[in-house]
Design a protein that fits this description.
Number of domains: 1
CATH superfamily: P-loop containing nucleotide triphosphate hydrolases
Shape: globular
Number of strands: 5
Structural class: alpha/beta
Radius of gyration: 15 Å
Number of helices: 8
Order of helices and strands: EHEHHHEHEHHEH
CATH class: Alpha Beta
Length: 185
Amino acid sequence: MTVVHLIGYPGSGKGVVADALQQSAGFVPYSVGELMRNEIRLDTDLGKQLKFIDSGKIAPPHLAMEVLKKNVTNSDKITLDGFPRNILQAEAYLNQIGKPDLTILVNVSEKVAIQRLMNRAKNSSRKDDNEEVFQNRITAYKNETYPCVDYLRQKGCNVTEINGEISIEEMQQEAISKILNLINK
């Protein structure tokens, strides 16, 4: 199985990259946050343990791994959008599953991320699309998720970066190019 992790600020364009990889290379996209919100919506035992994520908090590694194992099917190629969110989740993933084939960091400035989140909130029904939660998620990204990228590099994971501030088409092409290079090796 080929596994690609997509990391970046909330609103950076990770979902856009996941969609492009699905369309061009047949990757099955999984948004780990959406999987968690679905567990909450369905009021499962796991969902009851995850309710706090609506405030922008990061799930502990054992719950994140449980969500992945429960929801991710054995496909040949998958993307994990928004995972891992911190070093503890990365460590749990590496210990329980192994190294991802590629981690793509979608780079945008904090200002661009906030603008995109505010625009998304205008048309969203997500409970966590509000300014207070955005600030919590931005802070969590800076303090926990971004350091996770260095951790993955230190552990020998293949990490690459793409510019999330270019046009959607250019960003998709850049991601597709990196994936095709990986697959064709």
